[in-house]
Amino acid sequence: MKLEVEMTEEQLNLLILSTEVYGRILMNQPDLVADIIAEDRFFYDKDDPENNTRFHEWIKDRDEMTEKLRTALNVMFRDSYKSDTCRNLIDIWHVLRHLQYNISDNIDKNLYDVRASEPYQGGTELLMQVRIIETTDI
Predict the structure, then answer these.
(1) pTM score
(2) Which of 23, 20, 22, 30 is nearest to 75 (CA)?
(3) Domain boundaries along the sequence of the chain
(4) pLDDT digit string (tens) for 70-79?
(5) Which of 11, 17, 41, 118 is deepest in the core (most CB within 10 A)?
């Protein structure tokens, strides 16, 4: 079966993020999972006099979450990065982040960026193909 996927760029970014988080879980990388989750929880506000204190609390909470994730993942996902599920998920993530690199106006194409690398097949499924149906000019 072949499917054509249509989504907004924001939906693409969320799909990339979700595949990365799940892939990192399967690869037993709790520090990267905690960083991704924590990044969405702290908002830097230089006008807030408590910002410095909040930042240090955020770092402490992130580190605590990392250790809890590490304990859980070591029990549940040992060597799961070798599974077909994980490898196929990583392939999807590579295709989507490469698409993101190609369509984004916010990425400096002159700088090195891993998203610039052509996706390659590491799993058991053929690489997904994504076709852009229409672009909107704003």
Answers:
(1) 0.67
(2) 30
(3) 1-28+79-138, 30-76
(4) 888 877 766 6
(5) 17
